[in-house]
Structure formats: C-alpha cells, structure tokens
Amino acid sequence: MIVTIEPTPSAAPATLALPKTPAIPGDRGKRKIIDIRNVTVTVSSPTFSLRHFIKMNRVTIIKDVSFFSYEGEILGLIGESGAGKSTILRCITGQIKPNTGTVAVAGIDIVHHKREAIKRFGYVPQLELLSVYDHFTAIENVYYFGKMYLSGVPDEQIKQRAKEVLGILGFKEALMDKKVKNLSGGEKKRVSIAVGMIHDPEVLLLDEPTTGLDISLRIQVLNYLKNLNKKLGISVVIVSHDLEIAQYCNRIVLLDKGRVIEFGDPEEMINQLLPCEGRAIKLEVAELNDEIIESLRGVPEIKFVIKTGRNDVKIFAEEIDRKMISKVIEICDLISVPIKSITLDRADFTSYYRIRSKLEKDRQKQEKELAGSTTI
Amino acid sequence: MTKKIAKREFGLMRFFILVKKELASIWADKQALLIVFILPLLAVVAVGVTGAAADKTIDMLTAGRQADLGYVNLDRSVGYPNYVLSDEFIAVLGRQPGVTLTKYDTVAEANESLYRENIIGYVVLRDGFEMNVSAHLPAFVECHADAVYILAQPLVTSKVNDAIKEFKIAFNLLEDEINYETQDLWHIRSPLFVAWPMILTLTLMASALMLATQSMVGDNPIMRVALTPSRKFEIVSAKVAAYTILEMMQSLVLILFPMFLFNLNYPGNFFAIWIFSIFISYCGVAMGVFLSSLAKTKLQGSQFFLVGFMAIFILGSGVFVSGPEKIFPMIYSMNGSALVAYKDLPFALMWPYIWPQLAFGTIFYLAAYIVFRLKKGAI
Q1: Could A151 and B10 be called an inter-chain contact, meaning their C-beta atoms sit closer than 8 Å?
Q2: CA-based nearest residue to A250, from A12, A7, A18
Q3: In this structure, are strands B139-146 and A279-285 parallel, antiparallel, or unpaired?
Q4: pLDDT band at A16, cuts 50/70/90?
C-alpha cells in the first residue's frame, strides 16, 4: 500500500524545536543494523629523506572503535575535522577495509560479503557534485540509480517509487522534472538522499548532509530525514561535525582523534554530565561582560556558566529552583546589570559538548601540571 | 508504508541500463554531439574540395620504397639478333632498386595475386614486343597498379620508367620504341578516393579518443555508481559500448557523405564497411577510456587525449618512423577500410586487418578495468 506523505513545509522554523527523538517503530525488533567492533584502520604513507630515501610511515586513522545502532534508530557520528568520521563511514560502506575488527551492516559482514551488504544500505555522499548527474532531472537521477539496484523491476514501478521518495522529500511534480543543475543546494541534497533511498534500503548513511547549507536548509534537510525515519521506519546514520544533528539522533558517537570518546543516548549523556538532569537558567542581560560571568561562577551551587549568545548565558546548577533564580537576580543587582529576561531552559547537545570539551581541557591541563611537579 | 519492491538481478540488464545512461549523458552534452557530427563533415568537405592537391604529395613518398611487382611475358615474336628482348627487359626491370619480381603465366593469375596484395602491380609484355622494338616501331609495356594502395601507381610507373631508360641505353634504342601505359585497378573517380581511408581512420580515432578521455574522469558520480550492485567491469564495459555506439553514428556520416557529396561510390558492401569501422572506433574508445581512468582531473583527461592521439599518429602512421606502426592499429584500419570499401574484401581476407585492432582495443579495455578496479575513489 502506498501512503501519500505530506512534505514538510519548505519554510522551516528558524530554530531547532525538535528535542525529542522519534520512537522506534514497534514492528521492528532490537536488531543491530550497524555493528562496529574494535575497528582499527592504519594507512602507510611514504616519506622521502636523503638518509632513508623512502620510509613508510604507518598512521593510525581510527583506533579500536566500537559502537552500534538498532534498527529504526538515528545514529549520529560527531567529531571535529580529522576525527575519523568519514573513515568510519567508508568502513561501513566497504570502501575501506579495516586492519582489525568487524563491521556488520544489517547483520552482514561488509568485508566478506560486500555485494550482499551493498543492497542493504543507501549512501548519500557529502558533495552533490560527486553524487548525482547534473544534466539529468531529479527523477531521472533517482530512476537510473534505482535501475542499478533493481535491474529486473519494470521501469514504471521504479519511476513510481522514485516519485514517492521524492514526494516524501518535498518535491512537487514540476520540480522532479527539473534538471539537477538548475536546482538549489538544498534541493540537490534531497535528490541525493532520494537516490540513496530508491532501493528501499534498511539503513541510510549520510556523510555531512548539512554541510554547505544555510540554517533554514540545514533544518529542512534534517526534518526530511526525520520524516523518512518516521514514515518509512528506515534506520539512519549521519556523519557530521554539526552539533545540531544530535537533537535528531537516538544515539551519538563522539569521536576525537580516531577514538570513540562517548557513545550513547544524547539525553543520557547530558544527564550524566550536567547537574539537575540538564535543566538550566537562561539569563539575558542588557550588556553581557566578563564581570557578570565571573560573579556567577563564584557562586558555589553554580556548576557551569556558558555564553550562548551576545548577551545571554546558560547557568547549570545543582538545583534549579526559585532560590537559585533569586540568587542570580541578586548577583545582577549587586553589579548593577539590568536583566532583560530570565527563563528556565534545558541543555542542548551544543551546551553539553562545550562543557565536556572544557572539562577535558582542564583535566589534561591538570595532568600536565601533575606530571610536571612529579618530574621536579 | 511503501510496498517493498521485489529485488531481482540481471547483470546484463544492469549493463544495458548503464549503456542507456551513458548515451543519455552524451545526448545531454551538446558539445560532444557537435564533435561527433560536425568534425567528420568538416574533414570530408575540406579534403574532398582539396583532394587533387593531396595526390601530388604522393610522388614525394614513393622514393626508395620497396616495390613487389609481377610480370606476364606473352611475347613470342623474334627479330633482334642474339637476344630475346622481352626477357632482357624483364631482367633490367628486376635490377631496379627495391624491385622484386614474380613471374605469372597469365594476366588472370597476376590479377588474383594483385587482389590478394602479394604484389602492388604487374607489367604485361604483349606478343610482338621484340618485333616492334627491332623495327623501331612503338611497343607498349602494360602497367597494372593497385589503386587502393595509394603509393602503388607512382611506384610502379617510376620503376618501369627507369627500366625503360636503362633498357634503351643498353640496346641503343634512340627513338620512342618503348612506351608504357598504366591501368589503375579498383579506382573510383572521386576527389576523396585517396584520402577517404585516412579521413575515416583519423576522424574516428580522434573523436573517439577525444570523447572517451573524458568518459571516466568526467563522470563525477562514478564512484557512487560503483557503490551500487553494478560491478566495475560492467561500468567500464558500458562506457566502451556507449561510446562505440556513438562512433558508429559518426562512421555513418563518414561513409555516406562522401557518397552523396563526392561520388565516392564504394563497390564494397555498405554493411561490411560500417562493421569494419566499428573496430576502428573500438580502438579509439578503449584507449580513451583507459586514459580517462588514469586521469585525475578533466584537464588531465584532455592532456592525455593529445598524448594518445600523437602516439597513434606519429608512431602508428608509419610516415614519421618505421616499425612501431605494426603494433598500432592505424595502418590496419586505413588499409583494411580501403580494401573493404574499394575491393569488396570478403570476411576471410578482412580478418588480418581486424584482429590487430581487436587486440589493441581489448588490451586497453582490460587495462582501463584494472586501473578503475584499483582506484581508491573517495566519495
């Protein structure tokens, strides 16, 4: 049965308003759709010198990486540039063979059964330029890629399926027949996603799906992905350095220098790190300065203060209650700073990531100091 | 939820889809189409109009060349004391530099040998030769040359002319006792007759190379296609097939336009000529796809085209250097297309011209696949 799904309006909200991740559809069990265990990838790169002439250096790109994702979930691989995100994705797609460890997609070992595993996932590369045919229309692109997977299926059936997928991604009939080179960046991205979806894969793998898009298009693309996940029950893996994606994910893998530094439910990660289950006070003042921040940090109950805008901060304390709000107002009065607004808020993943990074830096600094004093 | 589509697979069908996609891509590229149809037209018209000038350059190319000739001596007359003049003339002809002579008893035998390219021409001395020469009356040396081999006619006449001069000095013949007349066999009266095999070969190879050197490097989503169930061998094969089909369209222009514009009415079978031209295209396309698989950017692809074409032209034509042309397909393509078109060569005799092209193309086709297979493309 084909269900028409209303596309998300193109004028998406200006801010992220989707803190809750979608529920796992009930008809799908707790099957691991992605299962990475102890994966290490090393590459050899030659260096030239007069002494050794050619020396092969072995560089470890990712080390002992393990994580998983259940069927129907959205998994986010987040990390800075060079963290090893794309390498992991290429391991999942079988473009790179890991030196050690196992990679399974929908229960199939990609290293030993690549041709079987390829049919189970849809891959959406980072750059549309390299992933769709510019001189074909949106529907032609989806059709041709569909035929690669479903060569024995009649053309009409594939075209119907292509229209459905493009429809879910917000394409009207007229837009489907437009050449890709005449589409906007966001539309091209959605064509690329539709190409990845045409063969009804079990998991959709996306490499930096929001890179190069402005804020409204980023949200639009993420909303469409959420829509696909919700309506078709497809599992999604998103690789990104964009922390916004975390709000759409059931699970997050935080990567740093080729290692997994955190893995889990983003809500749980926030709750574990931040006091009061991530609840916060959002304070907006007329003119924010260092004195206010330092004064707030001086209060023993306040654990973290982070700047979230030009004139606003988020305050995380052991208890978020009337007493704490009164204390914040009191401090502002004391240093004669007019308050514009004070509201209750929740930590988002960006706040979590910033606090976590700060704590990590402090820890490393302490370790260094300790090592220095031990040496003396 | 969307109904699941039954997943079935046919490698051959996937290959056809890839070919269809390639053709659709080429069709969308109007500049490529311009190359395919305008380039041969320009070549045909330009050479057709200036065809006569091309003939004159042939004389320069005949100097010092080997001439395998035949002779048929039908002279039974007598008249010159102590000598058999027809035998003496044959002996003088045989002493000319570069000439090797083969004796034939009949004109039909010599003709058959000429058709099979054992010789490039033959001379016939008719009965009465000695008698006429002895009586200082005109005697003719009939020269028959293979017009399909563009250097044959000037080569044969120059050797016979030199032999006549030497013979006349040796026997003190001071008048115009001996003359020669030449018959060009399989000749078609058209300004494109001489140049057409070269136009066909060079245009097909150049445009095939030009287009195919962009086929892999210009196909941006190729690595994404490789991440579908399509095999890399299917992808490379589809490229070779699609561009060869395109070149087949071009060869139609190259075969039909000379017929209508310059009266080049080939005695050969039209389909045989067309099929033979596919092998020429295949060579160019396979080499182009290989070079394209090596290239990392489109600019590199264009540069590789120049390198590939110059290699084929300089080493393969046999004009600039002698020897390497035996391993390049150009000579086989040129000679083969001339023979198929002008002599209506049967398939059995066509094969020696087909297999070197087939082998050359297949080596590059497989090399393109190996390079593409080893390519670590990141998408």
Answers
A1: yes
A2: A18
A3: unpaired
A4: very low
Chain B residue numbers touching A233 (CB-CB < 8 A): 1
Q: pTM score, two decimals? A: 0.74
Q: Among all residues of chain A, which has the CA nearest to that of B377?
A: A95
CA-based angle B187:B248:B230, to the nearest 5?
Answer: 155
Predicted confidence band of residue A374 (pLDDT cuts 50, 70, 90): low
**CA–CA dist A19, B11 (Å, integer):** 46
**In terms of CA atoms, which chain B residue is nearest residue A159?**
B5
Residue A203's DSSP bridge partners are A121, A235
Q: Confidence class of residue A19 from pLDDT cuts 50, 70 and 90?
A: very low
For residue B9, the chain A residues in CB contact (below 8 A) are 151-152
Q: Which 194-233 residues of chain B touch chain A by CB within 8 A? A: 220-221, 223-225, 227-230
Sequence ranges of chain B with CATH classification 3.40.1710.10? 59-185
Domain A32-269 matching CATH 3.30.2170.10: the answer reads: no
Are A151 and B9 within 8 A, CB to CB?
Answer: yes
Question: What's the fold here for domain A276-365?
Answer: Alpha-Beta Plaits (3.30.70)
Q: Do B220 and A161 touch (CB under 8 A)?
A: no
Q: Which residues pair with B184 in a beta bridge?
A: B145
Tell me: domain B59-185, CATH 3.40.50.10490, correct? no
Residues of A at the B interface, defined by Cβ within 8 angstroms: 1-3, 86, 90, 93-95, 115, 118-119, 123, 125-127, 129-136, 140, 144-145, 147-153, 157-158, 161, 164, 195, 199-200, 231-233
Instruction: Write out A139-198 in H/E/C secondary structure.
Output: HHHHHHHHHHHCCCCCHHHHHHHHHHHHHHCCCCHHHHCCEHHHCCHHHHHHHHHHHHHC
- The residue whose two tokens read 């990392």 is B296
Q: For residue range A314-332, what is the model confidence (pLDDT) as tens digits?
A: 888 888 888 888 888 888 8
- Tokens 């691991």 belong to A32
Q: In 3D, which of B191, B183, B245, B243 has the Cα closest to residue B218?
A: B243
